[in-house]
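Most newcomers find our protein records easier to grasp once they have seen one. Sequence and backbone structure share a record, each on its own labelled line. Nothing more is needed to start thinking about how sequence determines fold. As an example, a complete record with its sequence and its structure tokens follows.
=====
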Amino acid sequence: GEGGCMISIAFDFSKIAAKLDNITKAAKEGARPAAQAGAQVFYEEVKQRVPVSAKAHSTKGKKQTFTPGTLRKAIYQAFADKESGDGKASYRISWNKSHAFYGRFVEFGTSRMAAKPFLRPAYDAARAKALQAVQERMAVEVNKATK
């Protein structure tokens, strides 16, 4: 028969496996700070785009008067606990409805008032920049684990 040749290679994968475990762990733990970095970009864009009226407005029965900038001050970002989990982090950016219930009228309009959307345009304008912020922050978190 023919003379066969067999090559045997022994390689220790444990160090690589440990490094991969660290990267996986860092990526999971980095989800929240990375998501927050993206949320911050959206939050700032929304605040910039919120229409601010020139004069104070009162509700129908004059129960409440809203000074210019009330809606802008009511914009918040918050970690969405229920929508987040293992390696997944969500943030909510909206307005505090008890401080500025009329935010939805501004965003979507009413039968008497044209819409002046600010949430959707902010999302469209800041999406690429927010994604970049998320990726950069995640890279920082993963780099810590690979050192």
